[in-house]
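Crash report, auto-generated. Payload:
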Amino acid sequence: MFLNRMPRWEVLGEEALATVERGWERLAREIGIRFDHPRALRLFAEAGQTVEGDRVRFDPDFLREAARLAPSQFEIRARNPQRSIIVGGDHMVFAATNGAPFVCEGSHRRDGTMADVEKLLMLTQLTDTIDTPGRNIVEPSDVPLDVRHLVRALAATRLTDRVWSGEVSSEGKAQDCLRIADIIHGGRSAIEERPVLLANINVNSPLHFDVSMLEGLLTYADAGQAIIVTPFLLMGAMAPVTVAAALAQQTVEALAGIALVQLVRPGTPSVLGSFLAATDMQSGSPSFGGPESAIGLAASGQIARRFGLPWRSGGGTLTASHVVDYQAGYEAFNTLSAAFLAGANLCWQSAGWVAGGLGVSFEKFIADCELLDLLHHQFSPVEFDEASLAFGAYEEIGDAGHFFGVTHTLERFRDCFWRPTVATTENYDRWTKGGSHDYSTRAAKRCQELLESYTPPPLEGAVEEELIDFVERRAAELRDPIQVRR
Amino acid sequence: MFLNRMPRWEVLGEEALATVERGWERLAREIGIRFDHPRALRLFAEAGQTVEGDRVRFDPDFLREAARLAPSQFEIRARNPQRSIIVGGDHMVFAATNGAPFVCEGSHRRDGTMADVEKLLMLTQLTDTIDTPGRNIVEPSDVPLDVRHLVRALAATRLTDRVWSGEVSSEGKAQDCLRIADIIHGGRSAIEERPVLLANINVNSPLHFDVSMLEGLLTYADAGQAIIVTPFLLMGAMAPVTVAAALAQQTVEALAGIALVQLVRPGTPSVLGSFLAATDMQSGSPSFGGPESAIGLAASGQIARRFGLPWRSGGGTLTASHVVDYQAGYEAFNTLSAAFLAGANLCWQSAGWVAGGLGVSFEKFIADCELLDLLHHQFSPVEFDEASLAFGAYEEIGDAGHFFGVTHTLERFRDCFWRPTVATTENYDRWTKGGSHDYSTRAAKRCQELLESYTPPPLEGAVEEELIDFVERRAAELRDPIQVRR
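Recovered output after restart:
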């Protein structure tokens, strides 16, 4: 797992932090948040908060106290203990992009399929830089809607040995995912004791949790799984056009969701989520990787740390571009480096995102993994000891013009610098002889090579049988029977 | 001019800084630096430093004292006072890429020409993000070598009203550039009093200043112009493979050059330069935009500030890619954002660089200007006042789902977010209808549009005549007569 031991870039001064605090406290007290679920309203009322209809107005101190009940760091177990993840502190967890309906190939776009889901899961398993596939890297349009969660969870379990994320859009789907996790991890009480699933709850911003998200939140909280509460804020649309307001809103929304988790089951792992992008105010389209988003994300990390909560940054490697071009490179880098500079604990949407999140791209998945690898190195402190000063090298070269042959270099040349897999350092002649391929073309080639090297992680036959039986039985109950490939 | 008022990202702790200090002091005392110029050696000897042959060993305190003589902030006058630049403090100055022999167009490469130089100067004049063309954005292969500096300086003067950079590779060429500056700015004593030229001196690292660079340094120092001393370090080639050693070497090389400037003329504006890239140790080719380079650059800013010296970061928007692709986007962004995070005062090579600096690309010039514009916004603090919390907007929307129509948005929507010129936020249908163009294609189109909008800045007829007469006379003296277009 990657540990970010570089200094944090703290973009907000005390005055700005105080302004955000004043903002979220006032929203909590005076505007409140709507919850479309009677159990949520009852729990808040019992906790002494002001409930009127579906609206809850909060005492800010109640929200602060609730945040304190959540652990500042926790583990989520994977079926391969080597792949378990730690959320919090200096640890950074990286997830693949999630939720795209389309696959973008070059400038062409098509519906995602289960075959795409499987390939993307295989890539996730193969890379060292992505820790979790998340919930659904792409929507499989060829699988009936009712049973997608079953098919996806089964595929994530069979094709990877990593932590995955449960379906949150209804109680039934959440229960199915928990049941699959039970089968793998030795029963419900075992997973309640030590969580094995992530569940990402998107707030219906502004200031609203809908019934389906609340069913997910309550179900996973009952089971003690790790819950991320993420206000999904396109500034200008779901939040005002100012970063200060967006941060205040994000804070109160996330704290309210986390407070509900803690009322259900105190101590349940909870993550303050952020997804801050701006709206292009001429077209109404979202834009990604811009300055407001980068600063907003960096500030979010500072805010989360004040509550002692692990922080999810969104994203990731976001871009509005439809192809893997210069724009995709700089927008992805700006979003991702903000997460590193601000010390995100969970980086959602970290590989494959294109087209404002409507598309997933195989080339960009590979490209983004290279960015992650680069930033893993960049945020690992370099040595500053006596040997690193290489004084002997200067004595050794005399008046020679270069350090290629000195002992200090020969001892270190294999791993002294980060080396990209796809990016080129070839000179023009070599690059031309190789076909003058741009980065995107090379990434597509690398993707093929990687996929050819895939072997599934071992899974005990009896467990696999039980999983398949469960999925087939549930699909039949849901009246969309499926036959799973054995 | 852009002011970077965001907090600096300080990557080195006190211990690492002390290690670098120990390193440069030991290089200064025990290894020393070679100077291929008798005047330099004499000046150092007179100042009490140890001179043996062409090698000078330094008392570190002498170098520190010399650095103190240089101003921490200064102005360089442009012929249009609106375009004068301030170097130091929170100011950031951006220069176009410099020194490329080739022009890269798509995946094709060709020799640069004077027509390219002119177009790139026009772009520099047109953009708000680049403050200076520097010395030579591209080498004009169709102009004889002896007179290129004349033709270039004249073109920079006629096609832009910005500060430009003088030729440094011989005393004669430097004097010619000073004479051109004299003509524009009212005579030698006027420019000695208030500098009008930049001169970038590349150290022949490791630990060596050659005669041609020293002629340039001495000539511009005599004239009190602003001198940047830049160790050009490809780690693994001109410096050891460790960041600590590269920083120590960079420090002693830059301080030695600046000390020489201060011996010639105390108080002459001097800039600590850095250009840190890594070598691909398998191919021997330079690589750009990688982690070692980004961290090294960020650390360089910290070091320069300890000496109270303005700092030049190199670069810029560096990349090893031959085309304007994903690699070019992220490598450029990583180099450039390191300069912003570390508060560079001069950002050399900030627009147009491709192919490891061997090429200039018109598309990338445009693309990099967009990155600069983005980062100008990102590093301008956003407001955190009561109005920015937009409380009224929350009262106004009630249970509506978005903020598009609220007063707070309507008052701010025109300029609340940064808007790119070339990057797209179009949805897939719109983007497809527009031709499915990638970023590079759109940048080329934008370049054409910009060039068509060019008008030359006014220049007094008599001054222009005098400049042309001087250039034609000097060219004739140099036995490469030219006829300048009037």
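Post-recovery validation: The mean pLDDT of chain B is 97.
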